[in-house]
From TrEMBL:
Homodimer. Keywords: Aminoacyl-tRNA synthetase, ATP-binding, Cytoplasm, Ligase, Nucleotide-binding, Protein biosynthesis. The keyword Acyltransferase does not apply. Consists of three domains: the N-terminal catalytic domain, the editing domain and the C-terminal anticodon-binding domain. Belongs to the class-II aminoacyl-tRNA synthetase family. ProS type 1 subfamily. It is found in: Cytoplasm. The gene is proS. Catalyzes the attachment of proline to tRNA(Pro) in a two-step reaction: proline is first activated by ATP to form Pro-AMP and then transferred to the acceptor end of tRNA(Pro). As ProRS can inadvertently accommodate and process non-cognate amino acids such as alanine and cysteine, to avoid such errors it has two additional distinct editing activities against alanine. One activity is designated as 'pretransfer' editing and involves the tRNA(Pro)-independent hydrolysis of activated Ala-AMP. The keyword Acetylation does not apply. It catalyses: tRNA(Pro) + L-proline + ATP = L-prolyl-tRNA(Pro) + AMP + diphosphate. It is an enzyme of class 6 (ligase). This is Proline--tRNA ligase. Residues 33-495 form the Aminoacyl-transfer RNA synthetases class-II family profile domain. Its EC number is 6.1.1.15.
Length: 601
């Protein structure tokens, strides 16, 4: 492609809308343009990158026997009602764009495709002889993200590869999952990204085991906890660890103390003279179930620890059937306005005890009793301090089943944090890093096949539900993450395998006939040899052309400049900035060699 004929517009200044380097650079170098909130146009250079990423994904999927297909983006509500996800996806989390057609039929724009694929499997898979099956597609997904940001990182319309497997049993599923794990590692390695596979929460998708593939970068929205020995890595939402040991309690007898102005653990500990590890902190949450019921929850946890809200939401979903619901769809710490809707009288916030009375609750569609949960860290405490259910008062020297009944529901909802000891080896401590979630693989099990009646006949002639897995890669997010991991002050440094072009032939001065002639010839030869080349034949100063080439991040720049007199051109590697004088007729073979080794490396 000739730059003189291309829609090629670069910006010298950072656009105000961009916050992180990769977003700024993709805008400045003319890869993307914002059309609306979380909605972007992929311009010709970007589209080439996305095609390259897609091709790597396609090759790795095909290599493990997955079959490519294309599923509809417009999906009937009935399918989502069958799985029980219509309300959660259109209302509570509201991630699905929903619409009505002219016949008043409800439809959603696909944020993910479990329902559609399970519908197909129900129709087409009958016998164990057809198993296993894995289908995948590379397609635009729609999600009405509450906070679209960072360009392609969190869009409302983005490209995903999603795959779904149907297996005869759990063991067979684990085999497919294992193959996917390998394929995902290959995809990221081949795309030139440094990454880490981590244990992950399964979230609203459901299922058991799941792992995320994280690209480590400061701008990542996820926190990863890991150990130096490489044996443990997990998303903080899922991470487990050993809490620090609790200190000996200084209290020997139970008493109520006046502790004015001590609503936080810190102020209270300073006032009564104890360690936060000797405090039972009682945190109030408000949950809404899928069927609309609100439940108030008191979580008692050791004072130095924090609640992991993802784990808490999972626990409450586990208990949902006791309240007539299926899932906890929203979980918040209720602020003053939220409390007004159900509180019969002002709560003693900051001084709540595990046994706070149920008569604080009064409202319709609100469960009349608190759900009381106790985290494992608080169970073994003796002579602890806690609130007195009265503003300005605490109790000390308390014990479970003496002054306070130990809640029936003992849970692990503690947030693991940096510096905690690891479970697999207490000598290892957790380290923390930021990560961008690029891929997510799940062992789903039978959640969707049971809900939608997708069964097959096994070898014993019994009709049993299909066992499923699902596997997603954010193709557009991956492309931007590559930039986030690889840039310098002058611009993007694309990994060779996913660069929009391999080389750019720059003519310093288009009024110099020899420079033009050699450049034109090289440009032809490179393309003929399968080396994707750009030709900068614009009537611009050499300095402008060099700046643009750096900004756009093409791996190799070939300059038909001064060295022509010696029958050579200058070849500069973008990444190292190393410059080589290479004989004109050796350029193609040299580049071919460099590109091959970079792509395989
Ligand atoms: P996140 O936690 O970042 O919201 P998710 O867990 O909801 O992502 P999945 O449902 O696991 O995402 O989707 C599979 C992959 O699709 C993700 O690993 C990510 O790479 C990509 N992806 C998800 N949401 C977006 C988005 N809004 N914009 C771009 N890519 C996305
Ligand atoms: Mg995910």
């Amino acid at each position: 492609m000739r730059l003189s004929q291309m829609l090629f517009v670069t910006l010298r200044e950072d656009p105000a809308e961009a916050e992180i380097p990769s977003h700024k650079l993709l805008l400045r170098a003319g890869y993307i343009r914002r059309i609306g909130s979380g909605i972007y146009a992929y311009l010709p250079l970007m589209w080439r990158v996305l095609q390259k990423v897609s091709q790597i994904v396609r090759e790795e999927m095909n290599a493990i026997g997955a079959q490519e297909c294309l599923l509809p983006q417009v999906q009937p509500a009935e399918l989502w009602r069958e799985s029980g996800r219509w309300d959660t996806y259109t209302q509570a989390e509201g991630i699905m764009f929903a619409l009505k057609d002219r016949q008043e039929r409800e439809l959603g724009l696909g944020p993910t495709h479990e329902e559609v694929i399970t519908y197909i499997a129900r129709d087409m898979i009958r016998s164990y002889r057809q198993l296993p099956q894995t289908l995948y597609q590379i397609q635009t997904k729609f999600r009405d993200e509450i906070r679209p940001r960072f360009g392609l990182m969190r869009g409302r319309e983005f490209i995903m590869k999603d795959a779904y497997s149907f297996n005869a049993n759990e063991e067979d599923l684990r085999q497919t999952y294992h193959d996917m794990h390998r394929a995902y590692s290959n995809i990221l390695r081949r795309s030139g990204l440094a990454f880490r596979a981590v244990e992950a929460d399964s979230g609203a998708i459901g299922g058991s085991a799941s792992q995320e593939f994280m690209v480590l970068a400061e701008a990542g929205e996820d926190e990863v906890l890991y150990t130096e020995d490489g044996k443990y890595a997990a998303n903080v939402e899922k991470a487990v660890s050993l809490p620090p040991d609790a200190q000996q309690s200084p209290f020997t007898t139970y008493e109520k103390l006046e502790t004015p102005g001590t609503p936080t653990i810190e102020t209270m500990c300073a006032f009564v003279g104890c360690s936060p590890t000797q405090v039972v902190k009682n945190v109030l949450y408000q949950v809404v179930f899928d069927h609309g019921l609100t439940l108030l929850v008191i979580v008692s946890i050791r004072g130095d620890q924090d609640v992991n809200e993802v784990k808490l939401q999972n626990e409450i979903t586990r208990l949902a059937p006791q309240y007539g619901g299926k899932t906890a769809i929203a979980l918040i710490v209720p602020d003053a306005t939220a409390q007004q809707k159900w509180a019969a009288k002002p709560l003693p916030l900051g001084y709540i005890a595990p046994d706070i009375a149920d008569d604080y609750i009064r409202a319709e569609k609100v469960h009349p009793k608190f759900l009381r949960l106790v985290d494992k860290t608080a169970v073994d405490l003796q002579n602890f301090a806690t609130g007195a259910n009265e503003s300005g008062y605490h109790v000390v020297g308390a014990n479970w089943n003496e002054q306070f009944r130990l809640p029936e529901n003992i849970v692990d909802v503690r947030k693991a944090r940096i510096g905690d000891r690891a479970i697999h080896n207490p000598e290892q401590t957790l380290q923390s890093a930021r990560g961008i979630e690029i891929g997510h693989i799940f062992q789903l099990g039978t959640k969707y096949s049971v809900a939608m009646g997708a069964t097959y006949t096994n070898e014993q002639g019994e009709e049993v539900p299909l066992v499923m897995g699902c596997y997603g890669v954010g193709v557009s997010r991956l492309a931007q993450a590559a930039v986030e991991q690889s840039y310098d002050k002058d611009g993007i440094i694309w990994p060779v395998a996913i660069a929009p072009y391999h080389a750019i032939v720059t003519i310093p001065n288009i009024n110099n006939a020899q420079q033009v002639e050699v450049a034109e010839k090289l440009y032809q030869q490179l393309n003929n040899a399968g080396i994707e080349a750009l030709l900068d034949d614009r009537n611009e100063r050499a300095g402008v052309k060099f700046k643009d080439a750096d900004l756009v991040g093409i791996p190799y720049r070939i300059v038909t400049g001064r060295s022509l007199e010696a029958g050579k051109v200058e070849v500069v590697e973008r990444k190292s900035r190393n410059s080589h004088e290479i004989a004109i007729d050796a350029v193609v073979s040299t580049l071919q060699q460099w590109i091959n080794s970079a792509v395989q490396g």
